[in-house]
C-alpha cells in the first residue's frame, strides 16, 4: 500500500478501518434487524445516537 508507515506488513493486533468495519457492520445490521422485528426501531435509534454521542464526547 503506498504511503504506509509499515515496511512489509502491519503489526499483529492492529485494528484498521477495514477490519473494524468487517466486525461492526454485521453486528449493527443484526441488532437493527432484531429491533425492527420487535418494533423497537425508535428506541434502538435513540440508544445508538446516545451511545455514539457519548463515545464522541469521551474521545474528544
Overview features:
single chain, 60 residues, mainly alpha, 2 helices, 67% helix, 0% strand, elongated
- Overall mean pLDDT score? 89
Total number of domains: 1
- Overall helicity: 55-70%
Strand count: 0
- The string of secondary-structure elements, in order, is HH
- How far apart are the first and last residues' alpha carbons, in Å? 29 Å
Using only C-alpha atoms, the radius of gyration works out to 17 Å
Estimate the global geometry from the Cα principal axes.
Answer: elongated
Runs with pLDDT <50, length 5+? Answer: none
Beta fraction:
under 5%
Q: Tally the helices: what do you get?
A: 2
- Class derived from helix and strand content: mainly alpha
Describe the sheet with the most strands. Answer: none
Task: Provide a quick synopsis of the model.
This protein has 60 residues and is mostly helical. The chain is built from two helices and no strands.
Describe this structure in words.
The longest helix has 21 residues, at 17-37. Helix content is 67%, strand content 0%. The chain is elongated and about 50 Å long. The model has no long low-confidence stretch (mean pLDDT 89). The protein has 2 helices and no strands. It has 60 residues and is an all-alpha fold. It has one domain. The two termini are 29 Å apart.
Amino acid at each position: 500500500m503506498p504511503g504506509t508507515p509499515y515496511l512489509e506488513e502491519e503489526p499483529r493486533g492492529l485494528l484498521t478501518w477495514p477490519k473494524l468495519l468487517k466486525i461492526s457492520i454485521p453486528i449493527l445490521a443484526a441488532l437493527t434487524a432484531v429491533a425492527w422485528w420487535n418494533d423497537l426501531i425508535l428506541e434502538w435509534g435513540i440508544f445508538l445516537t446516545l451511545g455514539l454521542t457519548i463515545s464522541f464526547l469521551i474521545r474528544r
